[in-house]
Amino acid sequence: MEKHNYIGKTKEEAIQMAKEELQEVEENLFIRELETTKGGLFKSKKIEIEVIEKREVIKDIKDYLIRILKAMGYTANVEVKAKEEVPKYIIYSDNDALLIGKNGKNLKALSLIVSQYLNKELGRTYKFLIDVNEYKEKREKTLERLAKRIAREVRTTKVEAKLDSMNSYERRIIHNALTNFKGVYTESEGEEPNRYVVIKPKEDE
User: Fold this and answer.
1) Distance between CA atoms of residues 41 and 45, nearest Å
2) Which of 48, 69, 73, 78 would disulfide-bridge 34, Cβ 3.0–4.6 Å?
3) Can you say how many angstroms the Cα of residue 146 is from the centroid of all Cα atoms in its chain?
4) Which residues contact 164 (CB under 8 A, 6 or more apart)?
5) SS3 of 117, please?
C-alpha cells in the first residue's frame, strides 16, 4: 500500500500538510508518528509522520487476499462491500467448502493472517470482515433459527437444552438471538474448545 511521509515542527503541522496534499479529511487517514528530532541551538524540533489513506487500505486488503488465495492454489474472485463502515470481503472460489473449513476454521485462520499483515503495515488494528460466498451470513441465520426453535421447546417443556459446542462467534449469535426471547435465558458453559450454550427456562415466566 502507498505510504506518505511528512515532516513538520509539530504533529499537527505535519498532519495539516498531509490533508492538504492528499485532499482528505483526517478521519480518512491512518497516521503514525515515526520520529521526533529534538531541537538544538540552531535546529528546531521536527516530527515525522507516516500517512496511509483508508481507501488504499481497503484496496490493499483485497489485493493481499487475492495473492494469498493464488499462492494457496485457489481460483477466486473477491468482492468488496461496505457494512456499517466496516469493509466486507466476500470470496467466491472454486472450492468454498475447503476454504471455509470445519466450522469456519480455515476462514478464521485466513482472517488472522490478514490481521497480522495489517498490524505490521499500519501499526494498529483495523476492523474488517472476510466471508466465503456469504457463508457467515447464512450460518448466522441458521443458528438464529435453531436458537429460537429450541427456545420455544424449552419455554414449553421447562427443560433446559444444551447445544453443541461452538466457537465464541457462534455462541454470541445464539445469545444475541435470544436476548429478548420471553421465558428463557442463555448461559455459556464448559471449557474451550468445547464450550457450549445452554438454553434455560425462566422460573418466573
Assistant:
1) 10
2) 48
3) 25
4) 196
5) helix
